[in-house]
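thread: overnight batch results

M.L. [08:02]
morning all. the overnight job finished for the chain we discussed friday. pasting input first so we're all looking at the same thing
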Amino acid sequence: MIDTRVHANGPVTLPRGHRWVVVDVETSGLRSNAHRVLSVAALALREDGSVEREFSTLVNADCDPGPVHIHNLTRERLADAPRFTDIAGELADILDGGTLVAHNASFDYGFLDAEFRRAGRSIPAGQRLCTLALSRRLELDVPNYQLSTLAQHWQVQQLQAHDAYDDARVLSEVFVRSATMAESLQLPLPVVNCRSRKSVYPDSVQRVPCQWKNPGRLTEAGLVQGMKVVISGSTDTPRLTLAGRMTEAGLDVLNSASRQTSVVVCNDAGVQTAKVRKAMAEGIPVITEQQLEALLEGVAPGEPKVATVIDIVPQQETPVTTATTPAPEPQSWTLQGKKPKLWAGRRVLLLGGTHLEAVMMRSRIAQLGARPSLNFTAAVTDALLLEGADADKRMSRVNDRRLPLLTSDDVNAAIENGVVPPHMRTESRLTAPVLSQGEVIDLPAKTTQWSVNIAWKAEAVGDEFDVDVVTFLLDSNERVDTDDDFVFYNNPIYDDGVVELTMDGSSEQSIRVDLASIPNECERIAIAAAIDGDRTFGDLGAVSISVDSETGTAATAVLDAGTTERTMVLAEIYRRSGKWRLRAVGQGYDDDLAALAVRYGVDVEDSD
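M.L. [08:03]
and the structure it wrote out:
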């Protein structure tokens, strides 16, 4: 039994009101709809952080175990393990009524939810907490947020990486220390409701990865594996059943028509649904369900996909971290053609002042290369005091930490005369550049997988803002080609995870992007946010952006010029001269998310 009660800073007490259950899974792949759980561990914690109950087992999913070089789970090791249906009851019992804690919690929760569904049950955990989101909220002084890096930061010994039980043990220690720090900083924990939102679109076809290349449009030769097929309107066979048969035949079934669609299936083309209109405009063949049935009897073999990599010019090598090597040092990024800015590496917390004064000072802080901090976190190096700062409840903690106190005169003198205040400590963290609105940076070519993390001020529980982070994949005309190119809470995954939205915090959401797999016709990826209801970005305040890879952060930005806007384009990743570039945008609009989607070409009323 693990004992996590004794720590460097003494005994701890976990936040009350939750039954914390730390979970880790090892899987055969990355997609819960196509891959399986091979190992699972769950540790239920007492209030003092010690383990009250534990559960751990291998799982025989009778499938290709996938990346054996990572998890070391071979078919032979799994052969005698129980099926998930055999362990579902005991696992459900330990999860029942608990708040699931995991590192990248949407991943672990998604896989367990899928396995419980296959077993004819529902996962009993209704809430989850992501330690990745928690670590970002704390702004820990680490080069990245991998579990191995956090274990080193908190001085937790990691015995066997990618072993579900050992990862859960390490994570329980990381969680206890992180939750204790959050309590001391009076930062609310990023607990989210797992079932807060469900798709409103009926009979939506779940995308299944297709292993065949798209051979193009349907011709007289018939169907070929890899063809992209869309169903529109009512069908004699239930839509999901029909889609399943096409998927088994090797076809790629989608929910929206695009220029890449091979054929649209519609029993009554005269109805003129949006998909049929798209087909007619693009010259895509439209066939009936009866014609489809005949064609399915002779689907020709397709050409297997071959992984492709976008050829872009290298900018900077990035070290690789393994479970047995130390985490890399923070990387020194600079804006192309520019020297590091005067206050680079500082994290400045602003207290007091009017909205306009705060906006102006944050803008000037960013010009100096410092990062305005939205919360009182572990990373704050200085406090900027404006009128009324003494009334801020965080002032006492600023004094306890003995942070340097800055004034607007210090900021103005630095801008005008290029000086560092004598009372500002000279040491600072080596960090990524802070982009001002409109500023651009090239993303390093060697890294293609990025996480764009959006955060705002963490409010007290019950007073959170309802913010939706969304993404549009745009062509050269800055329009989506299909509604599937709009990634949001009801459509969180594009093309089997090439772009994915994760919502693992009450004031932070992430967009994960695999640039190597973005379609060639996509020229720009626009990342935006919308506030539901009558509240505005003026009410929300500053929004923080951090663009991270597994080995470090490429750039950050803080945007807070909002007033009456309800939607805002925050950042863009776009192609230019063979490179992927990142721009901090900050363009706001007074209308709602639906209007923003329409502006980018999304048909928000289409559900055929």
